[in-house]
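Interim report, section 4.2 (structural modelling).
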Amino acid sequence: MDRKRALITGITGQDGAYLAQFLLSKGYEVHGLLRRSASADVIGSRLRWLGIADSVVLHDGNLTDLSGLLRVMQEVKPAEVYNLAAQSFVKSSWQQPLLTGSVTGLGAANMLEAVRIACPDARFYQASSSEMYGLIQEPVQSETTPFYPRSPYAAAKLYAHWMTVNYRESFGLHASSGILFNHESPLRGIEFVTRKITDGVARIKLGMQDKLALGNMDAKRDWGHARDYVQAMWLMLQQDVPEDYVIATGRTVAVSEFCRLAFEHAGLTMEDHVVQDERYMRPAEVDVLLGNPEKARKNLGWAPETTLEMLVAEMVEADLQRLRHHEHL
Ligand code: NAP
Ligand code: G4F
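Predicted structure of the assembly:
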């Protein structure tokens, strides 16, 4: 029997790599979109870290190029499409607002068009974000909470989110959005605060640096593990009826608390090493995010398996190991 085929955009990112690993374990033939880079050594480093680089099929393409997306869609003919590609770093979105709009916003519309034209029976997942809640309108955010985006990134994601709803309602696509709250892992990009902290802690522990400079330590996030969250993406596409789901842990902590846990895991004291640096502050902040994953629990049978303490420990240990072995990610 033919293996079920999935196409993942953003396969070289954190979630794409974990999702590819998960789908391979389910017996899927996994295809991914790869944007051309002159730095060949960084391409696929996460897929290599998970040991699956040779198990996936990569296709040259870019979210901003609809003609290329149509070609890939026609070649692969996927049963499931996961649109994870984006300019995903919120802070950069103020420096590159139009690029962020093109990739994170219009890029999703390009994907929806490619599916509608070339593969209308494929099931489609859009990577929506809790960042869309921004200046929160309810203390705990669910699928019915109004959005209030606070960054060019969030505004672009909101456009992509509503386009997904629109294509579902207008063209009958099996299109679902996962409104995912922050999720981290050893594969998290080094510029995001959790990985910056665990990498910093590991460097301090190994005597490679002494200080860690951070921005707003009072911001609170609902942090989960990417490995748990990609399973929710898949579950959404297994439902008869496409819908939107909040994926979160239901617990929120401040950046300072994440930091304290990471330093403590390494036997260090945060106050001895952390300094505040204005350069890491944002023009507008999302002060607190806290999700209610009840709908996902009820309809998908999904619940997070990794606690914050387990996540912090795994990330610090991975960074210690990488630095000891002179590996980079
Ligand atoms: P990530 O690690 O930053 O990965 C982003 C991926 O998008 C990379 O594979 C990147 O390729 C690719 N990409 C960027 N621009 C592209 C373009 N123009 N054409 C094709 N590919 C492009 O992000 P992530 O943490 O895995 O997140 C996955 C998705 O979920 C993103 O859409 C993100 O916005 C969203 N999201 C993430 C979180 C979270 O907490 N992680 C929460 C909610 C939503 P390169 O490797 O070449 O850079
Ligand atoms: O780790 P962050 O950069 O993640 P942020 O902005 O919450 O966005 C992430 O989660 C979103 C889901 O809600 C995704 F959609 C998005 O793609 C991305 O994955 O920052 C978290 C918090 C912020 O409040 C920031 O101001 O940490 C604060 N922070 C404090 N010091 C810092 C730093 N953030 C970074 N990146 N670097 C710092 O030094």
